[in-house]
Amino acid sequence: MLLFRSEEHVERWCQTWRLPRGEVFSLEQQWGLAQAWYHDRLEPDWRRKTPDEVRTVFAGLGLTSGFWDLD
Length: 71
Fold this sequence. Notes:
Layout: H1 7-17, H2 27-38, H3 51-60
């Protein structure tokens, strides 16, 4: 995961490194994903999220493009 300051910065970076543009999402979405993903990680009864739970997390953060499709 890379952090950029603007859409223009993303485009310049992709052109410089001759790489296709990947998924871009906001810092707020990144923070929300980190919180949803790791909030219970240190709990003794922690378990890996099911695919349905992951889909719910993604959808709740507005991460709905094909990039986030688990199928």
